[in-house]
Amino acid sequence: MTTDKNLTLRFAEPDDCGVLFDLIQQLAEYEKLTHAVTGNVLLLQEHLFGDHRYIEAILAENAGQAVGFALFFHNYSTFLTKPGIYLEDLFVKPEFRRLGVGKALLIKLAQIAVERNCGRLEWSVLDWNEPAKTFYRRMGADILDDWRICRVTEEALTALADQK
């Protein structure tokens, strides 16, 4: 299975949302987080292509078959006073790993960040995912030990919003 000449990267289009959501579900299965998938294709399509576009996605295809994706959005660095790109998810189907698909997706995101004059490209990685951490380090990423993700969701988010 080769991907060199058969690999194409392109921005997702509205008709890709079903395929993209299927890849998101495969990512959740790999990460043992299928219980956390509560969204659906229609919400994904609205957030990618609706009146307010919250996210963007790059689809990786091998000979016309979707084999991976990168979903991202802009954030901002107050210290750099520049926008950045936050990579929410990067996924490559297991049978297409180690063929350059993930590398091609990260390179494409770096190119987009440079074109848009972003100060950084960043993402999170699960602490148990050693293959991903090794790959990211090879691509030039630093894994920051001194930062932790803080998250407020669902009932806690509503409760926080309701405080006076």
Mean pLDDT: 95
How many individual helices? Answer: 5
How much helix is in the residues? 25-40%
Strand content: 15-25%
Tell me the series of helices and strands, N- to C-terminal. Answer: EHHEEEHEHH
CATH homology superfamily name:
Gcn5-related N-acetyltransferase (GNAT)
Domains (count): 1
Low-confidence stretches: none
The spatial strand order of the largest sheet comes to 1-2-3-4-5
CATH class descriptor: Alpha Beta
Q: Main sheet, how many strands, which sense, barrel?
A: 5 strands, mixed
At CATH level 3, the topology is Aminopeptidase
Q: Using only CA atoms, what is the Rg?
A: 17 Å
What are the defining features of this structure?
164 residues; alpha+beta; 24% strand; Aminopeptidase
Secondary structure: elements and pairs:
Blueprint: E1 7-11, H1 17-30, H2 41-49, E2 56-62, E3 65-77, E4 82-92, H3 101-115, E5 121-123, H4 130-138, H5 154-162
Parallel strand pairs: 4-5
Antiparallel strand pairs: 1-2, 2-3, 3-4
Helix pairs in contact: 1-2
Describe the protein.
It contains 5 helices and 5 strands. With 164 residues, the protein is an alpha+beta fold. It has a single domain, classed as Gcn5-related N-acetyltransferase (GNAT) (Aminopeptidase), CATH 3.40.630.30. Strands 1-2-3-4-5 form a 5-stranded mixed β-sheet, with helices on both faces. The protein is globular and about 60 Å long.
